[in-house]
Every structure is written in structure tokens, then in C-alpha cells.
Amino acid sequence: MVNLKINNNPVSVPEGTTILEAAAKLGLKIPTLCHINWDCFHVEHRSGSCRICVVEVTGKPNLAPACCTPVAEGMDVHTNTMRAIQARRTVLELLLSNHPKDCLVCTKNQNCNLQSLASEFNIQTIRYEGEQTKLAVDDNGAAIRRDMSKCIMCRRCETACNVVQTVGVLSGVNRGFNATVAPQNFLPLDQTACVFCGQCVLACPVGALTEISYKDEVWQALNDPSKTVIVQTAPAVRVAIGEKFDMQPGEISTGKLVAALRRLGFAKVFDTDWSADLTIMEEATELFGRIKSGKNLPLLTSCCPGWVNFLEHQFPDQLHMPSTAKSPQQMFGAIAKSYYADLIGVDPSDLVVVSIMPCLAKKYEAGRPEFAPNGVRDVDYVLSTRELASMIKEAGVMFNSLPDEDYDDPLGESSGASVIFGASGGVLEAALRTAADWILNAQPDGSIAYFEDAADSPIDFVAVRGLEGIKEATVKIGDLELKAAVVSGLGNARKLLEKIRSGESQYHAIEIMACPGGCINGGGQPYSFCSCGGSDVLEARKNAVYRADEGKAIRKSHLNPSIIKIYKDFLGHPNSELAHKLLHTHYCAKK
């Protein structure tokens, strides 16, 4: 332990603690801008580049950045001297002098750390006037908008991209007035190895990185009498959207979410959980077949488009391993534009499918050419959780006062297995619940009893749950010992895939989610997680997902009556010719 004083208050902290952390232990807040701590992923960005957190250390000639200065025995720190306060104000004013003044129309308005600091410091005039950095806006990638004129060179996005995700697209370039963060050769993001996971957007403290919004297009569709507009909502949205309406993290807002969407004018409100159950039918069938044949193992779940992009760019030699099943978002779109459109007598080109997703990569996924058969996209527009909250407020819908309402049929009924897709480990656990029944009920000729329950089969596979980056488990089902792994965060995915490539690790099934913690921490979720820097918000969202699962009467995908019905009336059986045409895809190696 190291003993020191901060503002004349004694404190003891472990060796290696920073002044910033020691001050927090005393209940002292030192302002920060470039600093961010992903504590649940053991990654911290503390470059000290912004100098907003400077403090005075007795005996030291220069002010010290609190975020990256370790404590020392007997150190005497002062956080609120006139010298420190004046230095912070000067740094802040210089940052503001080179920042666009369009706060009122900026996407990050009221979610901007720079704006918050200006308010806390009561800065009402800009003393330093002069030239401002002006750079071109990049909004070519369908998912992420880069406006580097707003970049403050905190370089948090670099850490998210290069350290947390190991994608390696962003880096600091140039010096002085022309310094910025950009891809190599200033290429647009869609011409790089960017996977559009959106973790850089969550990390950015200002409006330099935001999502590309489709709110206007959705409003136009909702007000077009020639269009029938339906919507699907992802599992992780219902445990996070309440935060935008001052509800506690982890409050389950499913009923209010459905009600709000109806108030906005959607013709039908459906649940992506339904197509998550459908995904399990196709993916578990594929897993069952690969285990029997012993070929193309392990099976890698393919629900996450960010992770699929990562594989196509970084590990093209392993493209035979992912399941060919589409993601739940795209399965829903494919069924909506075929089965459902025919059911209600609407031409697929006049049926507008909107997705509400926690993820920015879903925006990119919806625009992939293979998901637009005959030129008609399966999913027309993808809105993030943040964008939907903005629309609800814009429409004057009082979210907190809404009654709970149910999803519409026939694409709204779901099992508990589908809602856990929102947390890391949930997709694999859902697949295991179904695969366990199929393995235990296997017929002598090897055929599968698709829609039968096995009373003794397990439901809760707790070994694959949690926020750890890499989880491994051996699950015993009958005579089979199924080796599984769950990975969240692309940096962790890289470690595991390299072990598989070298032959060091072998599994039957692996779930990979691009975002650390899974979809509950998607790039389109409310900013509260990264702004607080801790794991409490993420833990609350995760726990809510499993509470929602436990509250369901049916907790296995293959027992969902609506899923049984669509196979009976339309698809035939999992992996049938029609199912393969509508619900499966292929992958392409990318430069």
C-alpha cells in the first residue's frame, strides 16, 4: 500500500494506483476527457493527452495528469489550486476554440463530454479565436459517420479499435494543427477492414464518431399510405431503452417498447426473438449434422454481423466454420418479405421492414447485396436503440406512462431461449437447450424429433454465462461430451481463432460476439455504459436478460408454437430446400 495526501486528506491505495483513482476513493472528482476505463474488460485508456485532469504535486515543477500519474509514498497532491483550475480552463477553452459550434444540431448534443465540461466550468465565451480544423465527413459505410472536424485527439477510439477489438483500422496521423485520427491513407471506412461494431462510437466523447441515422427515412415510410411498415425489436433493446427515459439500467421495458412503437404508427410490432428461435432451429440442426459427420468443426455461430465481417477480413481461411444460418434480423426480413407478405396480401416491395437493434453493424448487414434478392432488401432500415428513443421523444410519446402491450402475431411469439441472445453466451445456451433435446430424443435411424421435449434435458447452462471475454465449458449430453467456448470482444476472438488455426484448441461449438459483453453492449445502445466507465450498467442489463428468460412459460426454441407452425405450414423442416434458400447465406473473403 502507498500512503499519500490529496487536498490534505490522507489515503492509502495499492501500488500502481493513479492519482485519479486515489482521489475517487476520497470522493473527489477530477475532470477527465481522454481517459476511459473498460474495467470489466481490463482495458484502460489513460494517455494524458488532453490535460484536463492536471493536478499540482508538491515539489514538482510541472502539473501532473492525474489519469496516468501513479501515486508515490508521501506524495502531497492538490486538485483544486488556482494554478490547476486555471490550466484546465485554458486547455478546455483551446479545445473549444477549434471545435465546431453546432451543438444544437449535433447528434451527441447532451451526450457530449466536451459540452458537459464546458457547462461544469461555466465557460460562456471563447477567448481564443482563429482558424479551425476542417476535414471531410465520411458517411459512406451505411453505419458509422466520421466527422473529424470535431475530433479532439483523445484517441479513445484508437484504443477501442486497436486494443479492445484488434481490428487495427484507426490511428493518429499528422502533427500539430493537422493532427487527426483516420484509417490508412484516409480511406473511407467501407474501404477498410472496419467491421462496424460501433465500439469506437461508444468510446468517442464528442460528435466525431456517430451512427448514420435513418430516422428521416422511417418517418417518411410511416407517413406513406402506399407502404405497410412493420418493425422488429432485438432482445437487448428491451433491457436498455428505459435508460433514455430515466429508468434504471436493467429495467425490462418490453411492454412499453411495444406500446411506443404502435404510437409511432407501425402497422405491426414484431419480435426479433421470434426469428432468434427460428435461427436456433437452423443453427442447431447444422450443429447436430456436423457433430454426426465430424466435419467442419467447430461450428461458429453467425448471429453477429460485426464478428462475421471480422472473420471475412482477418481469418478468410476459416470461412468454412461459421454456421450458414443468417442472423435473426435477416431471417425475420426474409420471412416477412415472403411468408408474411403473402399472408397479408402485400407486394414485398411495398412492405417496409424496420429493425430496432443495439448494434451498428446491423445497419451494414442489412445493406449487404446477398440480402436483397431480386433487388428488394429483406430489411429496409435499421435504427439503433438511441435513434428509437429519439423518435419516441420527438413524437411526444410519454414512454414511462405507457401501458404494457404484447407483440403482434404471427411473428411475435418467442421462448426464453431467444431473449438471452442479448447477452454473451446466450446464443450458445439457446442452441444447447435445443440440441440436448434432439440428442436425447434421437431416433434409431439418426433422424431428429424436431419438436419434442426431453423432460430430463437441462435448461440452464450457467457455465457459458457471464461477462468474461473467453469462457470454456464441457457440456455432457447423454453420451456426448460437447466442448464449447464463448467469446465476446474481437480481441478475444482473435486469440481463440489463432489457437484453432494452430490446432492448439478444439471445440464442437463456439459463440462469438463482436461487442464485449454481447449485444447488451452494442454500439447502438445508450451511452451510459462507456460514459460511466464501469461494468454496473452492463451487469444490470445482463441480469435483466436472464430474468426475462426465467419469466417465459416456454424456454426452448423448438417448443415455440409459432415456430412449429411456420415449419408445418411453410418451411417444411429445418434445413429444407426452402429454409436453405430463405434462411441461409454464404461468406466472402475480403481484402
Give structural notes.
This protein has helices spanning 19-25, 82-97, 113-120, 156-164, 199-203, 215-222, 254-264, 272-293, 305-314, 328-344, 361-366, 385-394, 416-419, 426-440, 490-502, 528-532, 536-550, 561-571, 577-583; strands at 2-6, 9-13, 36-38, 43-45, 54-57, 64-65, 76-78, 137-138, 144-147, 171-173, 180-182, 209-211, 228-233, 268-271, 299-300, 351-357, 381-384, 470-477, 480-488, 509-513. With 591 residues, it is of the alpha/beta class. The strands form 6 sheets. A 5-stranded mixed beta sheet has the order 2-1-7-5-6, sandwiched between helices. The chain has a 4-stranded parallel beta sheet with strand order 14-13-16-17, with helices on both faces. Strands 15-20-19-18 form a 4-stranded mixed beta sheet, sandwiched between helices. α8 packs across α10.
Helices and strands in order:
Layout: E1 2-6, E2 9-13, H1 19-25, E3 36-38, E4 43-45, E5 54-57, E6 64-65, E7 76-78, H2 82-97, H3 113-120, E8 137-138, E9 144-147, H4 156-164, E10 171-173, E11 180-182, H5 199-203, E12 209-211, H6 215-222, E13 228-233, H7 254-264, E14 268-271, H8 272-293, E15 299-300, H9 305-314, H10 328-344, E16 351-357, H11 361-366, E17 381-384, H12 385-394, H13 416-419, H14 426-440, E18 470-477, E19 480-488, H15 490-502, E20 509-513, H16 528-532, H17 536-550, H18 561-571, H19 577-583
Helix pairs in contact: 8-10, 8-14
